[in-house]
Amino acid sequence: MLKQCPLLQDVPLPVPARGNWGRILTNFDANCLRDVTISRNKDSIKYVELEFLSREELNATPVSYTDWVRNNSRKYQVIRDGWKATTWNMAIPVGSPEGWHRDCVVDVKDVNMEASDPCLSDLMAMLSSKTTRTLKELPVAYPILSMDDDVVYLLSRTRPREMDKLALMFAIDLRKATLRGLAELDVQKFIFLCNFCTSEICRGT
After folding, report:
1. In sequence order, what DSSP letters do the residues of 93-158 get, joined into one string?
2. How does pLDDT run across 4-56, given as a tens digit for each residue?
3. Does some domain include residue 10?
4. For residue 4, is it within any domain?
5. Residue 3 domain-assigned?
């Protein structure tokens, strides 16, 4: 924009993670998967993508291999198995649409959820009393990238058995793979997770 003759340039986002191909091609709300922001010192564009992991398991164990083949009883169920976050950056000014560089790749199973802050420890203990799920098992969506560092904010909304709905926000340092913060949200203000909007640029495919 500061050039004498500014030139509008299309900058495609990195190719989606393999686990997100089906979602993006079926008009899935891309806001719950990714976010784009500009670094605080405005020297790079930052991008993050969540990949929801899953695994397949047989619904029933066949009596024998012969029985399994004869009846073609290969029925599977898909089970959610956590998530993975990948961050990318591109230097400003943009030299090439292919200028994205992969930065951090973090699997939730590798994130250190131990809280060093006493206040954070008390909150985690309180949440543990509300849900049998561990923090790593809670569903997350709508990543929000920090402009200042490598922290990504994630929203989680669940309904523990026989309890009221629970809404949380996590702050994860992807560079160090550690929990930086945790807060319980007012569920009444978050009827749907999409009420919390990320940058509009991440709506594009």
Report:
1. S---TT--EEEEEEEGGG-B----SHHHHHHHHHHHTT-SS-GGGS--EEEEE-SSSSEEEEEEEE
2. 777 777 788 898 888 888 777 776 778 889 999 998 888 899 999 999 887 66
3. no
4. no
5. no
